[in-house]
Write a structure and sequence with these properties.
Elements (H helix, E strand, L loop, with lengths): L2 E7 L9 E2 L8 E3 L4 E6 L6 E7 L5 E12 L2 E6 L7 E6 L5 E15 L1 H4 L8 H8 L6 E6 L15 E7 L3 H4 L4 H14 L3 E7 L11 H6 L18 H7 L9 E5 L12 H19 L8 E4 L13 H9 L14 E4 L20 H15 L13 E7 L2 E6 L3 E3 L7 E4 L16 E2 L5 E5 L2 E5 L8 E6 L14 E3 L10 E6 L1
Parallel strand pairs: 1-8, 3-9, 9-12, 9-13, 10-12, 13-14, 14-15
Antiparallel strand pairs: 1-5, 2-4, 4-7, 5-6, 6-7, 8-9, 10-11, 16-17, 17-22, 18-24, 19-20, 19-23, 21-22, 23-25
Helix pairs in contact: 4-9, 7-8
Length: about 500
């Protein structure tokens, strides 16, 4: 490992006036291979900064950085790109402004609502997982932004920090860290050998509208919404203003997202616009203010389970569909460089039977998210982006034949997994229930070969038009890993939910 020590020299007369933005702390991670900004508050009296650098071989170098007063009381420094595993100590001489043990790696921003916020202390086998995570030491570092909302956009806002930058072996802080965010990093770290910095900024029970820029909401014709005095965090754009916008000067590798439950009964049918537009907007805002790519990878978790299989509400199934821009899988033409994890086989009876909204099996979710992320974010094409997905549908009488894009295994599950609706896919979900979607009996579904399944709809005669769906329930199965269709490869990703029209 190369040790790079950078001493940043500033005139002593300005030292007492300068402060780092709260994001910048000793032990932090800066994004590799791109220029990165360090910024803060105060008035400077010089426009240059000299860095004297020493690597672990004793070689010295001297670089000059431009120090800019970008606004009154706001300054920033643009540092040269560094390779992964470089360690820096950055100091403003004759002052207490020091950033020690800064490591260069990949930085991910994790956001969403309560399933992203659920911490390591509340997952299955929490004590064992936290102990095992200590082995990652300083290879995985993390921090958490505190809950905060703003009713206006303030680019120079100094966010409050709930968990300061720390390492995986700090079990006391790891207990409080987002489980999906950290466990994703753990999976990725095992494969790429690059330090990871995970920035967590989520808030339970929040709407996507709160996390979206006003311009993004306007593009989807989203009505104005104020959450009220006891729910300010759910006002349009208030969390974008308070928890995301202040981070946009920091270069990132990518984003992770777990949200949608709150929108299952609010602006549900705008989600297929709001989510892709929010992704584009976040990318563009970070790219405009840092060296984050405007194609930065964006990963999300499809909504997991909630109540028991007898639930007739269709909010969750429709949101899952809308999370893919009504395509069924990602990446797609509307959502390039996006990846996802399907979590419909993680029903957790212990989370408040007959089922709760926070399944504890976050290891499964993070592993699947990492498998797809290794492909999309890191170009490792040997990893799949999804489980089996139908790419062709043919109708012969009452039999629908589905051809999938990869080899599949059809398990002896609780259900067939298929549902029939006599209307078009849109009309089948115009209401708030799944009443129009009738379950296809297990006896009516047959695997023909490694990629082909036949669904006999004779029970629903006459079948001339209508729709076929898969996993179109809030909680389709109770068993862990109990879905009907999985890939036969070693990753065993489940087939995701979908709906398609039938034309006979």
């Amino acid at each position: 490992m190369i040790l790079l020590v950078c001493v940043l020299l500033l005139p002593s007369s300005s030292h007492a006036l300068l402060k780092f933005n709260n994001y910048f702390e000793s032990g932090m991670v800066l994004q590799r291979d791109v220029s990165t900004k360090i910024w803060g508050y105060g008035t400077i009296t010089s426009e240059e900064m000299i860095a004297n650098c020493v690597d672990d071989g004793g070689h010295r170098s001297s670089s000059v950085f431009s120090l800019q007063q970008v606004r009154e009381d706001v300054w920033e420094v643009l540092l040269d790109p560094r390779e992964a595993n470089t360690v820096c100590s950055i100091q403003v001489t004759d002052s207490d402004l020091v950033l020690d043990d800064v490591i260069i790696g990949d930085v991910w921003l994790c956001s969403g609502q309560s399933n992203m916020e659920l911490n390591m202390d509340h997952i299955e086998n929490a004590e064992e997982e936290i102990a095992d995570s200590a082995l990652y030491g300083d290879r995985i570092r993390f921090m958490t932004i505190n809950h905060q909302w703003l009713n206006v956009s303030m680019d120079d806002y100094d966010p409050n920090i709930k968990i300061s930058w720390t390492t995986a072996d700090n079990s006391a802080k790891l207990k409080l860290m987002s489980a999906v965010c950290f466990l994703f990093a753990r999976e990725i770290s095992d494969k790429i050998g690059v330090p990871l910095g995970m920035v967590h900024a989520s808030w339970g029970g929040t709407l996507i509208e709160a996390w979206s820029d006003p311009d993004a909401l306007d593009r989807c014709d989203v009505p104005n919404h104020w959450g009220g005095p006891d729910n300010m965090q759910n006002s349009n754009s208030y969390l974008w203003n308070g928890m995301i916008n202040p981070l946009k000067r920091n270069s990132l590798k990518g984003f992770l997202w777990y949200q949608g439950e709150a929108n299952s009964n609010r602006n549900r049918d705008l989600y297929n616009c709001m989510f892709p537009v929010m992704i584009d907007d976040w990318r563009n805002e970070f790219a405009a203010h840092s060296e984050t790519l405007n194609t930065a990878p964006f990963g999300f978790v499809q909504l997991s389970t909630n109540k028991n299989p007898e639930s007739t509400t269709n909010g969750f199934p429709v949101i899952r569909w809308h999370q893919t821009a009504d395509v069924g899988v990602v990446p797609n033409d509307l959502m390039p460089d996006v990846f996802m994890a399907t979590a419909l086989d993680t029903f957790d009876a212990a989370d408040g039977y007959p089922g709760g909204i926070h399944p504890r099996y976050k290891q499964i979710v993070a592993q699947r998210l990492a498998i797809a992320g290794l492909n999309v974010a890191y170009g490792m094409e040997e990893y799949p982006t999804s489980g089996p997905f139908p790419v062709d549908l043919k109708v012969d009488g009452d039999v629908v034949t589905l051809v999938y894009d990869q080899d599949l295994f059809m398990a002896d599950a609780e259900i067939s997994g298929f549902y029939y609706c006599p209307e078009s896919p849109v009309k089948c979900d115009e209401g708030s229930t799944v009443d129009l979607w009738a379950e296809v009996p297990k006896s009516a579904v047959l695997q023909i070969d490694q990629r082909t399944i036949a669904v006999n709809l004779t029970t629903f005669q006459p079948v001339s038009t209508g729709s076929l769906g898969y996993l179109w329930r809030e909680s389709p199965v109770l068993d862990l890993y109990g879905l009907p269709i999985y890939a036969t490869d070693r990753y065993s990703l489940p087939s995701p939910p979908w709906k398609m029209p039938i034309d006979n």
